[in-house]
Write a structure and sequence with these properties.
The protein is of the alpha+beta class. It folds into two domains: about 170 residues, NADH Oxidase; about 40 residues, no CATH class. Helices cover about 40% and strands about 10% of the residues. It has ten helices and four strands; from the N terminus they run H-H-E-H-H-E-H-H-E-H-E-H-H-H. The chain has a four-stranded antiparallel sheet with strand order 1-2-4-3, with helices on both faces. The longest helix has 24 residues. It is globular and about 60 Å long. Belongs to the flavin oxidoreductase frp family. InterPro entries: Flavin_OxRdtase_Frp, Nitroreductase, Nitroreductase-like. Keywords: Flavoprotein, FMN, NADP, Oxidoreductase. This is NADPH-flavin oxidoreductase. GO terms for molecular function: oxidoreductase activity.
Length: about 260
């Protein structure tokens, strides 16, 4: 039997949970500077630094983002960031070096660079989340800002060669939710090749389904049907997400077929 090795960092990560209610105390500038610097220190593929994060402080913009995300706490969180793919800055740099961003010579708008920049943005956001947890703050990732990508682009004045990735709300927790279950390690971590025996996977997932069922039953009584497998089945045929895809990236100048 293996044992988890405990230290303050490991214990902090093992206790991580999404926080959706925050105390309304403002976050001081030193803390903000620390969080932003930690995000910058995340890995950057080929040192392109091809992401940016917009700290949204304008109440009207916050409210609009809350409406887009259908989540009131987006508008009231002490800190709110929207992380974006950013090849616009690099396009400006390249242009000053004599490269026309509108030409085929400029490849930072191609699909590989787009996915690379998305990865870098998520890595930066993850570093900020970890730093925030270490400072006693809580956070929640806001995938719901992608409910209306064109509106987010317009709201934040995102120029060509930029694209929203995720939002992040942070603040001092005003709630202490239970830790959401995670599937067994041996289901998600594999060795050397993909484990593709459906019957065995289904058997291994049965206990996890029961754990998730219990979690939701305790948290939201009256929803005993909530298992992980049922959630996956429902989301597998959710057509609303089809309007949230990266097709909007083409309008921002990216060439995803290249």
């Amino acid at each position: 039997m293996t044992q988890i090795i405990h230290n303050p960092t490991v214990d902090m990560l093992l206790q991580r949970r999404s926080i959706r209610a925050f105390e309304q105390n403002p976050i001081d500038e030193d803390t903000i500077a620390t969080l932003e610097r930690c995000a910058q220190q995340a890995p950057s593929s080929q040192y392109l630094n091809d992401w940016s994060a917009i700290r949204v402080t304008d109440p009207e913009k916050r409210q609009k983002l809350a409406e887009i995300g259908h989540q009131k706490y987006i508008g009231t969180a002490p800190l709110l960031y929207i992380y974006v793919v950013d090849e616009h800055r690099n396009a400006q740099i390249a242009q000053r070096k004599g490269i026309d961003p509108e030409s085929d010579e400029f490849t930072l708008k191609a699909s590989y660079r787009f996915s690379q920049a998305q990865n870098d943005a998520v890595l930066g956001m993850s570093a900020m989340m970890t730093a925030a947890e270490s400072l006693g703050l809580g956070s929640v990732v806001l995938g719901t800002i992608l409910n209306d990508i064109p509106q987010v682009i317009e709201l934040l004045d995102l120029p060509k060669y930029t694209y929203p990735v995720l939002g992040l709300a942070l603040g001092k927790p005003a709630q202490h939710p239970e830790i959401k279950p995670r599937m067994p390690r041996y289901v998600q971590f594999m060795e050397n090749s993909y484990f593709n025996e459906a019957d065995v996977t289904e058997e291994r997932m049965a206990a996890f389904d029961e754990e998730v069922h219990t979690y939701y039953d305790l948290r939201k009584g009256g929803r005993p049907e909530e298992t992980f497998s049922k959630q996956i089945a429902q989301k597998a045929v959710d057509t609303e997400v089809l309007d949230r895809g990266i097709k909007h990236a083409e309008a921002q100048g990216f060439q995803l077929d290249r």
